[in-house]
Amino acid sequence: MSKELKNIMLGHGSGGKLSHDLIDSLFAYHFKNEILDQQSDSAIIELNGDKLAYTTDSFVVDPIFFPGGNIGNLAIAGTVNDLAVSGAIPQYISVGFIIEEGFPFSDLEKIVVSMAEDAAEAGVKIVTGDTKVVDKGKCDKVFINTSGIGVLKDSYIHISSGKNITPGDKIIINGSIGDHGMAVMAARNELNIQTHIESDCACLNHMIAGALKESDGIKFMRDATRGGLGTVLSELVNNGNYGISIEEEKLTVHENVRGLCELLGFDPLYVANEGKVVMVVASEDADNVLKVLKESPFGKEASIIGEISSSYDGTAWLETNVGGKRIIDMLSGQQLPRIC
Amino acid sequence: MSKELKNIMLGHGSGGKLSHDLIDSLFAYHFKNEILDQQSDSAIIELNGDKLAYTTDSFVVDPIFFPGGNIGNLAIAGTVNDLAVSGAIPQYISVGFIIEEGFPFSDLEKIVVSMAEDAAEAGVKIVTGDTKVVDKGKCDKVFINTSGIGVLKDSYIHISSGKNITPGDKIIINGSIGDHGMAVMAARNELNIQTHIESDCACLNHMIAGALKESDGIKFMRDATRGGLGTVLSELVNNGNYGISIEEEKLTVHENVRGLCELLGFDPLYVANEGKVVMVVASEDADNVLKVLKESPFGKEASIIGEISSSYDGTAWLETNVGGKRIIDMLSGQQLPRIC
Known about the structure:
The structure is a homodimer. Chain A is of the alpha+beta class. Chain A is built from nine helices and 14 strands. The first copy, chain A, has two domains: 124 residues, CATH 3.30.1330.10; 159 residues, Phosphoribosyl-aminoimidazole Synthetase, Chain A, domain 2 (Alpha-Beta Complex). In chain A, strands 9-11-8-12-10-13-14 form a seven-stranded mixed beta sheet, with helices on both faces. In chain A, strands 1-2-7-5-6 form a five-stranded mixed beta sheet, with helices on one face. The longest helix of chain A is centred in the middle third of the chain and has 18 residues. The interface between A and B is large, with 80 and 80 residues.
């Protein structure tokens, strides 16, 4: 960690460069072990000879209710999706609530009902939990942590690391980008924004299982949450001996999302999604996978947005609509705090 | 949940009666499934035919540093102990940090180092994690959630439910009560207390594994954390067709802990511990188990404190030093907020 940084800043929770530095210099350094070193969405662990995926996330979104969902939906979808993108079948979820004294029961119940509904739809069981209450003013309404466990087939273990990726593979995303982040921004009290943007928050495990059933050529998956699509692509090239080329015209950004991004000065590439998976798929399987994704309610706008290339070694490039090219780098600051 | 309670109160996080009501009426009601219904320290789950224990806890202790430990020690010990008292061998831990903007790196590093040391000593690996940062004033310094997974032998599955408990079984605790809660109270800024009380925070898994190796007669275990020994005993009789009789003179309460409890009006029976396990052991095995516990650095003051009785049906009784008897009931309010 850079010596001049003495205190934690919002950017350390952004999922971007500062987060990576904190993880590398502090958490991965002191907690060091061969499983944590993988730094994938889910840890791949072995118990009694079986492979499992195991993951955790805390949710501190502000506001806790927004168009298209609430903090409870995020808490289930976030963990279900982290397991699913590792190629695992999500099975069991733990839930830890930290609640501010005075928080209305009725709001807590709405959140809990949303979690129960999402868990049922995703086919996961919430099997263990914990509740802490802190004095008024010592947390912001409610924070939720979930962890999750899924069963992983041996044949899918390469998906977490993406080690089978080769030039020519296609990059697919299951729809538009930036909806979640802009929905949350628009819902913030201090902004008086009329546009209605809905979060894309969704459990993607059934759609992903369908794609895995269709094709053996899915070589990597990651959900593009904090840090958005840009951060996923940037992390991907950092881990491999290849480049990435993305065609801007293939990216779907809804008009109201684009408008709000322009108004606030955000780049949709780096805005959070909560129902989007980025897949790297063998070229010959890409159309079949795309077809399966489009059959899901969460994949109607799926598209092939680019490919793995050998020419742009170690860099992700965006081929812009106007014929230019720009590097897709890791976010260096904090674009949107408390978005999930 | 009682209709007149419209808002969450500190007591809902106490581990006492209000916590139980909240769990029953909200979480267990909406998340309902046969595993969650067990409501034990760890969920017993099955994956690929193997039995695993799975648990989670959030830690919000105030202050985060106190004599004998810090929030990081609690976060590892709490989860390791929840797995161990289920009879499981703790294996993997997840960690989620929620950090307040401006929190000093140096403090975070101290906490992380404590966690790494405890994990190494307990023989568990921290394999997955998450970091969120919230704006200054939106949480109190740092909150930590841990979840954990352990492997459970089929022959120990009865320990979580205590279904093999019968009258005559002995009740053992591995030492003094009330140290953690009073150490944290004494460390609070608003109190100007000179007495030095150390938290008993410790990972008990190796000591517990030693006891399980010694005896097949361990019928139930629980760590006496929030709500203290009194709450564990009260929960135990609520679940069974027997009573409990505890001899007050067999309980160890250190002099400085007793003094501070008297000063502040607390009952040591209900004060939190973070390194104490309550065991129910077949009468003929009790002395052997006691001997094994006493060999551990965390069990030097272990003692048999009472027994399961058929005469006090459904009630836990304390036989007091002065020859009287009083019921050990569930804590109805909140004795000590943010103690873990």
